[in-house]
Design brief:
The complex is a heterodimer of chains A (about 550) and B (about 350).
Chain A lengths: L24 H5 L3 H29 L10 H36 L7 H20 L28 H29 L12 H32 L13 H35 L6 H14 L15 H13 L1 H15 L8 H24 L1 H7 L3 H31 L5 H28 L13 H29 L50
Helix pairs in contact in A: 2-3, 2-4, 2-15, 3-4, 3-5, 3-7, 3-13, 4-5, 5-6, 6-7, 6-8, 7-10, 7-11, 7-13, 8-10, 10-11, 11-13, 11-14, 13-14, 13-15, 14-15
Chain B lengths: L21 H34 L15 H30 L6 E8 L2 E6 L5 E4 L3 H8 L19 E4 L4 E7 L4 E5 L4 E5 L5 E5 L5 E7 L11 E7 L1 H16 L9 H15 L1 H4 L17 H4 L2 H10 L12 H13 L11 H4 L7
Parallel strand pairs in B: 1-5, 4-10
Antiparallel strand pairs in B: 1-2, 2-3, 5-8, 6-7, 6-9, 9-10
Helix pairs in contact in B: 1-2, 5-9
The chains are: A mainly alpha (about 550), B alpha+beta (about 350).
Chain lengths: ~550, ~350
């Protein structure tokens, strides 16, 4: 019966017989990609505020020179935990949440290929993050050796108390969770596409996630291996990273960054995908250079494996290594540039409107490009001998993460929430949230370029007086940015509970149906969709060739 | 905000410093070149984007074009950036080779990173000393309510700066005895990691006499922010005089004459601030779960002979402090036993703590 309901039929939402189970158990046992996507997104949002609270502690301590609020070791725990929570608890799960919701809708699949594993990977994520968070309450505190967990510092009894094994097992759980999620995404994309949709018909978001999933499978085991070696060095008397036993602490850095560099692309490639989905809708134009976008994503992913030691220019590498990693890193600017040019060309001669998702996406293109520029500057190895481990780096990677990944996650929220809930968000508050965010994020991070160039190292709780003014300005920006995000929380809750009360159409956004399959479904999206696959793939970029 | 910075603080800068070496100037030029290239690309791309945002909007009645690829344009904007990158890579390669060339140096200094100070050893002479954060900064950052702005060169001052001659190629060999540190003086143009168990090389040749300040730039534990670097570059004659004076001072034996208890306590505090405070904290409370307290500690307040032996031997967690001479040991022990919440009530004189074979 409902298995053969044509989803294009708007009476589909009258069929309640296959709705969600009632009660709390629904969320624990669910195998529905929408439920699991929602849980990932809610969890990520919660962790965004937890990690954000830690950032507020950091900015409060740096508001003025001198130590006012926290002990230096706790400060180090905050920088460490802020990074780990934001990377593994907020950004990555948020994109997995989007993948869960959107990939089946976009490719015309009824659900993810491996629904039970999907449930398991979510709950392992929760377990992993809770395990990590538990170290905050332990004697000796949470890990405070930086999120990179460099030995010998992280192994030192006077630095890290009992937290290390918990952090290591947490990484294992998070790694297993990510790998299962990635396998699921790959299996879904390869096997469950609507028959009409060829690989080169897939929306960019699906493409970028497919490539990201391969990165995850490739590098999460490497990270798990590295932290396991830390564990055995600490407790089982191995000497992987101990020179006294024939090991090398720098070996850890090579292994870590072999994971770490693809990891940062794991957080940015899906961002590219969402931007490539949103910008065409509000420019009312097909995405420019679809094929080159796919190839650029693939090239960036490939390059991410062969540039890792640009995080280590000052570690003492042979000159051949320094030069190789410099050249390889510089090349990344080419495919990344192609993407930025393509987004610009997509806007060119469009008929643009500037609803909140579009505003966040435009800010992403501009501010991510600024982060790209500083990245290019840092690829110049001799110059990196000055930039490395200063606030210039802190500014760089926050530009590529906050007004890039985080802004695009916000954009995605505004873009798809009406589709998911059937309610329109409050556009005025959305725009207020955008303007507060975009202004404060620059007050927060732009001055950090100056601080780094003027000589302020990163990861310090106290600083020389000449750094005082920009730190204060940066902190003020941070507090405004942090407070502004409460508006987003309000909007999400408000939209789920009815929003403006306006009934949104199936397309939600004008002519969105030309751009993706999900807009041809009813709003709100029924609990089960595409039980019969769509017969055509109305992605706009392929209209010409078909 | 305090924009009127006193003369005792460095100038307030927005850009990278040019520095005082040829390499640092080359790096500055590279930095400015790539910065202007980025600015030019940014102005171009964002210019087009904002033109489009302004003109190609639906509210102005603009109708969307439907083009979605153009092979020529796409090839052009792949090739041009590639050419710019090649143009950048050439000068960068030359500077990198120069930065790496440690051959034919005039002198070598061994830099050892320790938690949390630097140890300098001049390999061509017998000069060897430690360089700690100065006492004024040490007190200020550890005291609630202290005003850092009243401390000259807050957190960027040391008790004994590294002294080098100008216009000489000074080679550095860097290592560490505990965790990874990184030695950075922006005016010299580079930083280099100090890895435990391994030796890195770097070099400098300072053009201009002066005082240059920097910091550790690799997270090295709780006091990472508190191990600055000060390099003083002197003209050759002054440098030579400094070498002679320093060698003489090094040969001097410590004054083992008796001290008043106030003197012992005051000197002891200095020794404590230099050697112990990083772990055991300014009030001797230690860090719960990581570092034992000295307040009420059985070792600290027990027999002074066993405390002395403990300090000289160290433990698996604590480095040995056999580098303290009899004078410093006596001062430190008197301080630890009669301050930090302890009241043993004894007074140890340098002569007491001197070992029979201790000719320091």
């Amino acid at each position: 019966m409902s298995a053969v309901v044509d989803e294009h039929d708007h009476h589909a939402d009258d069929h309640h017989d296959h709705g969600p189970a009632k009660g709390l158990l629904r969320w624990i046992t669910t195998t529905n990609h929408k439920d699991i996507g929602t849980m990932y997104l809610v969890f990520a949002l919660a962790m965004f505020f937890v990690g954000g609270a830690m950032a507020m502690v950091i900015r409060a301590e740096l508001f003025e020179p001198g130590l006012q609020f926290v002990d230096p070791a706790f400060f180090n725990s905050m920088t460490t935990m802020h990074a780990l929570v934001m990377v593994f608890g907020a950004v990555m799960p948020a994109f997995v949440g989007l993948a869960n919701w959107q990939i089946p809708l976009m490719i015309g699949a009824a659900d993810m290929a491996l629904p039970r594993m999907n449930n398991m990977s979510f709950w392992m994520l929760v377990a992993g993050v809770l395990l990590l968070a538990s170290t905050l309450f332990m004697e000796g505190g949470a890990p405070n050796g930086g999120w990179t967990l460099y030995p010998p510092l992280v192994l030192q009894p006077i630095t890290v108390g009992k937290a290390l094994p918990f952090a290591v097992f947490s990484v294992h759980l998070l790694g297993i969770s990510s790998i299962m999620g990635a396998i699921n995404i790959i299996a879904t994309i390869f096997n469950m596409r609507a028959p009409a949709m060829k690989m080169m018909d897939m929306p960019l978001f699906v493409w970028t996630w497919l490539i990201t999933a391969f990165l995850l499978i490739a590098v999460m085991p490497v990270f798990a291996g590295a932290v396991t070696m830390l564990l055995t060095d600490k407790f089982f008397h191995t000497s992987f990273f101990n020179a006294a036993g024939g090991g090398d602490p720098v070996l850890y850095q090579h292994i870590f960054w072999f994971f770490g560099h693809p990891e940062v692309y794991i957080m940015i490639l899906p961002t590219f995908g969402v931007a490539s989905t949103i910008i065409p809708v509000f420019a009312r134009k097909p995405l420019f250079g679809y094929a080159s976008m796919v190839w650029a994503t693939g090239s960036i992913a490939f390059l991410s494996f062969i540039v890792w030691a640009h995080h280590m220019f000052t570690v003492g590498m042979p000159i051949a290594g320094e030069l190789y990693f410099m050249y390889a890193t510089m090349i990344i600017a080419v495919p990344t540039g192609v993407k930025v040019f393509n987004w610009t060309a997509t806007m060119w001669k469009g008929a643009m409107t500037f609803e909140t998702p579009m505003l966040f996406s435009i800010a992403f293109v501009v501010l991510f490009t600024m982060g790209g520029f500083t990245g290019l500057m840092m690829s110049i190895a001799p110059a990196d001998f000055q930039y490395h481990d200063t606030y210039f780096i802190v500014a760089h990677f926050h530009y590529t993460l906050v007004p890039a990944s985080i802004f695009i996650l916000m954009a995605a929220g505004y873009f798809w929430l009406p589709k998911w809930t059937g309610h329109m968000y409050n556009e005025k508050i959305g725009q207020l949230h955008f303007w507060l965010s975009v202004i404060s994020v620059n007050i927060l991070f732009f001055p950090q370029h100056f601080l780094g160039l003027a000589g302020m190292p990163r990861r310090i709780p106290d600083y020389a007086i000449q750094f005082a003014d920009w730190n204060m300005i940066s902190s003020i920006g941070g507090f405004i940015f942090g407070a502004s995000q409460l508006l987003f929380l309000y909007i999400v809750i408000d939209t789920v509970r009815g929003g403006t009360g306006e009934k949104v159409s199936d397309e939600v956004w004008e002519d969105a149906g030309k751009h993706g399959l999900e807009w041809t479904l009813p709003s709100p999206v029924p609990y089960h969709t595409w039980t019969t696959p769509p017969t055509s793939a109305p992605t706009e970029h392929v209209l010409d060739s078909h | 905000m305090a924009l009127g910075l006193g003369a005792a603080q460095a100038d307030y800068t927005l850009n990278l410093m040019k520095g005082v070496t040829k390499v640092s100037n080359d790096i500055y030029d590279l930095h400015m070149l790539i910065l202007w290239i980025c600015v030019a690309i940014g102005v171009g791309v964002f210019g087009v984007m904002f033109y489009s945002i302004y003109h190609h909007r639906k509210s102005k009645g603009h109708v969307a074009a439907q083009f979605h690829e153009n092979t020529t344009v796409e090839i052009i904007w792949t090739i041009i950036p590639t050419l710019i990158l090649v143009a950048m890579a050439i000068p960068a390669t030359y500077t990198m080779l120069e930065l790496n060339d440690v051959e034919k140096s005039d002198m070598t200094i061994q830099v050892t990173g320790r938690q949390w100070y630097w140890d300098y050893k001049y390999l061509n002479s017998d000069i060897h000393f430690e360089s700690h954060l100065d006492e004024a900064s040490e007190r200020a950052h550890r005291t609630k309510g202290a005003d850092p702005r009243s401390v000259p060169h807050y957190l960027l001052n040391v008790d004994k700066p590294l002294v080098i001659p100008v216009k000489k190629k000074v080679r550095f060999v860097l290592t560490s005895t505990d965790v990874i540190h990184s030695w950075w003086v922006p005016d010299l143009g580079w930083k280099k990691d100090a890895n435990p168990g391994f030796i890195n090389e770097a070099w400098t040749s300072v053009d201009k006499a002066g005082t240059y300040r920097g910091q550790c730039t690799e997270l090295c534990g709780r006091d990472h922010a508190f191990m600055p670097i000060v390099v003083i570059a002197l003209e050759q004659p002054e440098y030579d005089a400094w070498v002679i004076k320093t060698l003489e001072q090094q040969k001097q034996k410590p004054d083992l004459s008796d001290q008043s208890s106030q003197q012992l306590m005051a000197h002891g505090e200095s020794v404590y601030l230099k050697n112990c405070v990083g772990c055991h904290q300014i009030n001797g409370a230690g860090v719960p779960g990581l570092i034992p307290a000295l307040t009420g500690s059985a070792i600290a307040t027990g027999k002074w002979e066993s405390l002395d032996g403990f300090l000289r031997a160290g433990t698996s967690k604590m480095p040995k402090f056999d580098k303290l001479n009899a004078k410093e040991s006596a001062e430190l022990m008197t301080y630890v036993r009669n301050n930090l919440g302890n009241k043993v009530g004894d007074e140890l004189q340098p002569k007491q703590t001197a070992l029979p074979d201790d000719d320091d």
